[in-house]
Each structure stands twice: as structure tokens, then as C-alpha cells.
Amino acid sequence: MNRIRKGDDVMVTAGRDKGRRGTVLRIVDEEHVLVEGVNKVKKHQRPNPMKGVTAAIIDKEMPLHVSNVALFNPTSRKPDRVGIRVMEDGRRVRFFKSNGENVDV
């Protein structure tokens, strides 16, 4: 079970964008996530008349390593570590390590 999933509200804990918050747009692979509005780079785009693309410099989000983001805890208003707990009925749920609250309801 992944500790960080698509749609989660995360905060960047290391790097150029440390302290910024965003939503996970997609999981790129096992170790990388794409976060909305974070780790933006400028891409020089070449024109392609066949596809109708004009030349431009576009802003684009690049993937971040999972170790550089942490799930945002709304009660403490801070980034928090996540653990996995098995419930009595056999379901596996994520919980915040600081206060023990379940992330998934």
C-alpha cells in the first residue's frame, strides 16, 4: 500500500520548493510523484506545424521523489509521517504518526 496517493494534499519537505503545498496529480513510478504547482521548470518548446503547436517557453511541473514530500495533517497544520494499520475487519488504512488519526475514512 502506498503511503502517498493521487489526490492527497502534500507539503514539500526538501529542495528548492521546501514548505510549498500542493495536490498529488499522479504517481509517476514507485518513487516519484507529480505535485500541482510545485517543482516548476521552463521548457523551450519547438514548433510543430503538423500538430498545430507554436514555439513557446512553457512552465511545466516535474516529478519529485517521494522522500521529499510528506502528507499534510489538517489538524496540526504541519507535514506528517504516515503509517499503515490493519483494522479488525482486515482493511488496511493509513494513519498519521503524530496523533494516530486515520487518513482514510
3D architecture notes:
The chain has 105 residues and is mainly β. The chain has a domain at 9-77: SH3 type barrels (Roll), CATH 2.30.30. Helix content is 0%, strand content 47%. It is built from no helices and 10 strands. A 6-stranded antiparallel beta sheet has the order 6-3-2-1-7-8, with no helix packed on it. The protein has a two-stranded antiparallel ribbon with strand order 4-5. Strand 1 and strand 2 form a beta hairpin. It is elongated, with a radius of gyration of 17 Å. The two termini are 16 Å apart. The mean pLDDT is 94.
Keywords:
mainly beta; two-stranded antiparallel sheet; SH3 type barrels; 105 residues; elongated; six-stranded antiparallel β-sheet
Distance between the termini: 16 Å
The number of helical elements comes to: 0
- Share of helical residues: under 10%
Provide the succession of SSEs. EEEEEEEEEE
In CATH, the topology of one domain is named SH3 type barrels
CATH architecture of one domain: Roll
Relative strand content: over 45%
Supply the CATH class of one domain: Mainly Beta
Structural topology:
Elements: E1 9-12, E2 21-29, E3 32-35, E4 40-45, E5 56-61, E6 64-65, E7 69-73, E8 78-80, E9 82-86, E10 92-96
Antiparallel strand pairs: 1-2, 1-7, 2-3, 3-6, 4-5, 7-8, 9-10
Brief characterization of the structure:
By secondary structure, the protein is an all-beta fold. It has no helices and ten strands.
